[in-house]
Design goal:
There is one protein chain. The protein has 2 domains: 251 residues, Aminopeptidase; 109 residues, Alpha-Beta Plaits (2-Layer Sandwich). Helix content is 38%, strand content 20%. The strands form 2 sheets. A 6-stranded mixed beta sheet has the order 2-1-3-6-4-5, with helices on both faces. It is globular. The chain binds zinc ion (ZN). Zinc ion binds next to loops.
Length: 382
């Protein structure tokens, strides 16, 4: 144990020596170039997004020398969606923030909202994701790049029902802070934190959010968003959310700067998907039960708790065949175990009646694996 600790310490030390930045933030101004985004009565989304992103980056850079800021664009140029995410992934960023301006057919729609990746539960959220994702149609090789993803077909979005995003909790925390500060700093309606299948978020490998500043399709809100003093208030709100988010992360890390990027986790913990920490102490219980004739298995995860509960406990609301594993100090409870996609989706829908946030996770040879890869592997076999 002692040697492991030494290895971890020395590894962290090396990282701090090689990088003077403790935190890498990627700021993504949505759209650009031939892709104007939503168009208002006198302004364009791409320009609003860029103005806000540059102001936000400037403010963070001025006050936080330990933050490395990477912009996906600083001028009016077209950048493919995938490339935006790749910039963040290559930089091993700690946080990805995409800034957009909303638009709706209903001209009275108004307010701010922040999205994290997930399954859209309302038609409205689905339509917005479709609208934002449709920019890939401007890319030459979009069918190849996005593996047949059709941004305008609801079928393409079924995948997001299965999504298990390991950065979901952190992303939602940050999104929540942004919305709280928008409410505090601005008179705009708080439309809350939402989930939808945004391609740009799907392709990132770190906590990520997509902010919709307000509605360019609403005459009053368009004016509001374009006024300098309001821009300052909005940017301050996001800035404060960022500072808060970073502070909480550092606190969790014992007051130390955050270890840079994801590499540390990979090098210092043997199984990043199933990290066991000191509290609670039990090992994952699933490893012996998930290996059957098929090497891919799906389960429905529906509950997370600090406590260990036995099958039959009222907390499970009658859900049976309970299994659990430990991750980041939490017990994560699952039910079901099958290689049949339709069966697991049916089970997920049943469980979701009692636990609306239930989602599907995948195992390969007894180890947690990427849900996309698992679905693909099972589909290819058919
Ligand atoms: Zn947009």
């Amino acid at each position: 144990m002692n040697t492991l600790k030494k290895v971890i310490t020395s590894f962290t030390f090396i990282l701090f020596c090689t990088s003077s930045f403790a935190f890498t933030l990627v700021l993504d101004a949505g759209h650009g170039g031939q892709d104007a985004g939503a168009i208002g009565s006198f302004s364009k989304e791409k320009n609003i997004n860029l103005t806000y992103v540059l102001a936000l980056g400037e403010k963070i850079a001025a006050n936080h020398k330990d933050v490395k800021i990477i912009y996906t664009r600083t001028t009016d140029v077209f950048i493919p969606l995938n490339e935006r995410a790749q910039i963040a992934n290559k930089a091993n960023a700690d946080l990805f923030m995409s800034i957009h301006t909303n638009s709706a057919k209903n001209k009275t729609a108004n307010g701010t909202e922040t999205f994290t990746l997930g399954h859209a539960r309302s038609k409205e959220n689905m339509e917005l994701a479709m609208l934002e994702n449709s920019v890939i149609l401007l890319e030459e090789d979009y069918q190849k790049t996005y593996q047949g993803f059709d941004p305008n077909s609801t079928d393409s979005y079924i995948m997001f029902q299965f999504m298990q995003d390991q950065y979901m909790e952190q992303s939602i925390k940050f999104a929540d802070l942004i919305q709280q500060n928008f409410s505090k700093n601005t008179p705009l309606t708080d439309r809350g934190v939402r989930q939808a299948g945004f391609l740009v978020l799907r392709a990132t490998t770190m906590p990520s959010v997509l902010v919709e500043l307000g509605f360019i399709s609403n005459r009053e809100e368009e004016k509001y968003l374009n006024r300098k003093e309001n821009q300052d208030k909005m940017v301050d709100a996001i800035y404060e959310a960022f500072v808060n988010y970073k502070r909480v992360l550092e606190k969790k890390n014992g007051g130390q700067p955050i270890e840079h990027g994801k590499n540390t986790t990979i090098h210092t913990t043997p199984t990043p998907q199933q990290t066991t920490t000191s509290t609670p102490t039990q090992k994952p219980t699933n490893t012996s039960t998930v290996v059957t004739e098929s090497n891919i298995l799906f389960k429905v995860q529906f509950l997370v708790s600090k406590k260990k509960y036995k099958e039959g406990n009222a907390i499970f609301k009658g859900v049976t065949n309970i299994d659990s594993y430990v991750e980041n100090g939490f017990y994560k409870y699952t039910t079901g175990s099958t290689s049949d996609i339709d069966a697991i989706n049916q089970l997920k829908n049943d469980v979701a009646k009692k636990f609306p946030d239930a989602f599907v996770i995948a195992y390969k040879n007894g180890k947690r694996c990427n849900i996309h890869d698992a679905i693909k592997e099972v589909s290819d076999k058919k």
